[in-house]
Amino acid sequence: MEITQFSMEEILDPTNIIEGKRYEFILDVEIDEDDELYHEAGIEIRVLIGEKGEEPFILNYFIMEKAEGEYLDFALEDEELEEILAFCKEEMAKA
Predict the structure, then answer these.
(1) At a CB cut-off of 8 Å and minimum separation 6, what does 81 contact?
(2) Angstrom distance (rounded) from CA 5 to CA 55
(3) How far apart are CA 84 and CA 58, in angstroms?
(4) What pTM, to 2 d.p., does this model score?
(5) What is the pLDDT of residues 14-43, one digit of tens each?
(6) Residue 24, CB half-sphere, CA atoms under 13 Å: how many?
């Protein structure tokens, strides 16, 4: 899995109910053809990141097939989640 493009947006809480900050990342990822996640039109992963204190963490993620915008019922492997979290942390540090 390789992240080819992304967008990042802070999710604002006007009620101040949520502690810390929340971010939404939308990641375009390139998947090998032999991977069960592979779709010809491409895959997008929507990741919600929480930041409380010094350590960001993944709150949730959703995998979507780009052509139809359908959610796919797959779980990412631990290594893939670690790779995504490391990418998101790096981009948050730049912002």
Answers:
(1) 58, 61
(2) 24
(3) 9
(4) 0.89
(5) 888 888 899 999 999 998 888 888 888 889
(6) 8
